[in-house]
Amino acid sequence: MSTMVEAEATVGGIVNDGTLNTAQVQTSKKGFCSVRHGLALIVHLCNFSISTQQMNMSIAMPAMVSNTALPSPANASTERPPTDSQHNWNETLSEFKAMAAMYNWSPEIQGIILSSVNYGSFLAPIPSSYLAEMFGTKYLSGAGMFITSVLTLFTPLAADTGVIFLIALRIIQGIIQVMLLTGQYSIWPRWAPPLERSHLIAIAASGSVLGSFIILLVGGQLCQTVGWPYVFYIFGGIGCVCSFLWFALIYDDPMNHPFISTSEKEYIVCSLAQEDSPPGWTPPIKAMIKSLPLWSILIFHFSDSWLYFVMMSYLPTYISSVLQANIRDSGMLSALPLVSICICIVPGGLLADFLLSRKILRLNTIRKLFTAIGVLLPCVFFTSLFWVRSSFSATVALLILFAAAKSLTQSGAFVNFMDIAPRYSVLLRGLSQIFCYIAGAISPTVSGFFISQLL
Fold first, then answer.
1. CB count, 10 Å around CB of 386?
2. How wide is the angle at C-alpha 330 spanned by C-alphas 325 and 333, nearest 5°?
3. CA distance 91 to 89
4. pLDDT of 129-144, one tens digit each?
5. Which stretches of 226-291 are DSSP H helices?
6. Which of 158-162, 197-201, 276-280 has the highest mean pLDDT?
7. Residue 138 and residue 142: Cα distance in Å, rounded?
8. Which segments within 114-176 are labelled E, that is strand?
9. Strand ranges for 73-118 from DSSP E
10. Tell me, what's the pLDDT at 100?
């Protein structure tokens, strides 16, 4: 994930050895009360909505089907949440049947449905990168936000119509969501000063984490009280509201924003001028293919996304099946790891920017250090789940530690493509999205296959 001189020469990177010359950048408009931080907050809200629409199927799936429970481990102890019992589980399923339709989907079909949102996603990042440059993020991402929210509202109808229609809707929805998530990165080369890049992008990206947290926290409760269709109705409606906010408040360039102050505008322009890499489209394809830093970022995105999609797709089912929690409690317990991400992701970005601005560590070192911690520790915690599966409290504790450590990668590898090639950041983001969604399309399906072999 390092930023190297070779990458600078070929892909278009930061000058010198990966550190920024900050002495030339002066400003009278710093702090969180600024238009650029307000813009990050709007992107945060839209990422929140997209995340809930991606995760709503995972939390609703146990309520939509009648055969999700796995056999209890033979050596499981009696340590359980106070409200958990097989009687409560059966009683909850009876309530679901009375409130909304249930489907007899096999684990293989469930895995396909959970993966379907990613099936066509790897086709969209590169075209959406070019479309964002041609038409602007304001209109491309705003339209995508509205369309995917409307499709979310129609998800219960598609499920009633047939599993093929549901899978097709999820595939279309996934393609549109990728266009939104990829296109929004064209904002940051024009809005994010280099010394604020880590925490501005962290604020925006934390919306995805918060969305996953909220859907897991309240999704099970909604399924149990009013029925699983309302998980799609409520969060689809929130997405429509966010799309209106996007159209009203997002602008592609600070020069065109009607409310930005002159001092802040000058600060952003002067700060970005230090990189000497204005946005443009003449990508050196051959040089990109030979760039080892770029390949390391792409491989990281694939492996990290494999683990993320498995955890997000099956965590509620894992908790309800292995820990014998009812669906409502499994959603709430699944949300706990995301609390630690919400708490740690923005301070992690602030810490990275602090270390860089004070010249305590070089940019290369910061990205490598944060990525190493955010990869190695979560692997240890996640692998340890197998040996503590009989303990409810130990399982939840490891999941929380896993998520907290993983949040540091946002200020490591996830923002590194902005360092090695700010001019082509949208294109590189599109490439990384391809690797992410290939992993997302494969991992839940593979997991569903292995789960079916255990039943």
1. 7
2. 115
3. 5
4. 677 767 777 888 888 8
5. 229-249, 262-273, 285-290
6. 158-162
7. 6
8. none
9. none
10. 67
Q: How many CB atoms lie within 10 A of CB 350?
A: 15
Tokens representing 52? 């809930």
Assigned token pair, 65: 């089907």
CA 383 to CA 101: how far, in whole Å?
Answer: 36
pLDDT at 275: 60
For 370-374, the CB contacts below 8 A with 24+ separation are 370/408, 370/409, 370/411, 370/412, 371/1, 371/300, 371/408, 371/409, 371/412, 371/413, 371/416, 372/412, 373/405, 373/408, 374/405, 374/406, 374/407, 374/408, 374/409, 374/410, 374/412, 374/413
| This prediction's pTM | 0.65
Q: What is the rounded average pLDDT of the residues 424-444? A: 77
For residue 446, the model assigns a pLDDT of 79
CB atoms inside a 10 Å sphere around CB 102: 16
Angle between helices 292-322 and 35-64 (to 10 degrees): 40
- pLDDT tens for 399-425 read 888 888 888 888 888 888 777 877 777
CA distance 78 to 323: 10
Beta bridge partners of 65: 103
Taking each helix axis from N to C terminus, what angle separates 413-420 and 363-383, rounded to the nearest 10 degrees? 160
Question: Mean of the pLDDT values across residues 328-357?
Answer: 79
